[in-house]
Amino acid sequence: MSDDQIIIPHDSPIRAHLEHAVSTCRIIFVAGLPGTGKSLMLQQIILLADQTGRRVHTMQWDAARRPFETPQWLDKFPEVDNLTHPGIRKAVGLWVRQGVLKWHEQHSDQSDLLVAELPVVGGRFTELLHQSKDDAEALLGSDQAVFFVPIPRAEIRRAIEGFRADTFANPRNDQETKDAPPEIVQNDWLDIRRVHDLWTGTQSDPTTAHVYDAEIYRHVYDRLMRHRNLQILDIDRTFETKGSAYERLVPVQELTASADEITASYAQLGEQFPGDSVGPVVDRWYDY
Questions:
Q1: Residue 28 banded pLDDT, cuts 50, 70, 90
Q2: Left, alpha or beta for 108 (phi > 0: left; psi -120 to 50: alpha)?
Q3: Measured between alpha carbons, how far is 277 from 74 in angstroms, rounded to an integer?
């Protein structure tokens, strides 16, 4: 790997935050909506970690979800309008805390680093933010784990959305073909608006609710991350990307559930959420 693949400048405060994390943490989460620079931050963290000699493991929502989507379970929990069924989202969530803890225990060498995507909205890995009475909480709530949230300024968000629309229409690799379509990106933002209105007792103007607001975004994620070691990344400029942000230019190992873990997770799902009861629970993904 050459240094020019790391495109965040040395004098950037973002670079300082990332370099500190890759030298001190066991787990680095990057949370937030699509279209906020999350994928680029993940890529740059992986490159910086490799440069310092860390052995990088990754966990991303799409890769973690796919083993749960067997024909058996897709028949029971079908995708609707490009959205993963709440039953599958919750089954992944029931696995993920113990999955991360098991990784931590099985990779005890301090050179091992887990870099994970945390979409949150819609109940995607939200369980990692819950303050639960289990063995994983001591790890997730410690300084060994950092939770970055990139928050772009309005003009940067518009630039990212434009770039995403271009790559969605003309994908450069297999991962870009799986990007959320623009309407889902917009709906995720409206979900953030809805949660903000609920928590503040306000009502967004329906004619402007679709417009991104960095302060609303920050307020919601501050509260969502209240039990975690949160660090906000203020994205105040665009970066000159080289290739796709999804490209992994160094070796990584992907963390996913085993077949036995998936079976156990669906069994737990059936016990805890019989019938159609899982849907309303996932709809209130922010309520913890």
A1: very high
A2: alpha
A3: 17
Structure tokens, 13: 């405060």
Residue ranges of alpha helices (H) inside 107-150 are 137-140
Rounded to an integer, the average pLDDT of 57-85 is: 95
In a domain, 62, yes or no: yes
Considering the domain boundaries, does residue 269 fall inside one?
Answer: yes
What number of other Cβ atoms are within 10 A of residue 176's Cβ? Answer: 18
Closest by Cα among 240, 279, 250, 230 to 51: 250
Concatenated DSSP letters of 66-94:
GGG--HHHHHHS--BTTB--HHHHHHHHH
| Phi (first) and psi of residue 276, to 5 degrees | -100, 20
How do beta strands 55-59 and 145-152 pair? unpaired
CATH number, domain at 75?
3.40.50
Number of H helices, E strands in the chain: 12, 6
In this prediction, residue 181 carries a pLDDT of 76
| Count of domains for the chain | 1
What is the spatial distance between Cα 104 and Cα 216, in angstroms, rounded to a whole number? 34
Residues of the domain holding 248:
14-153+227-273
Segment 96-142, tens digit of pLDDT: 999 999 999 999 999 999 999 999 999 999 999 999 999 999 999 99
CA 52 to chain centroid, in Å, comes to: 24
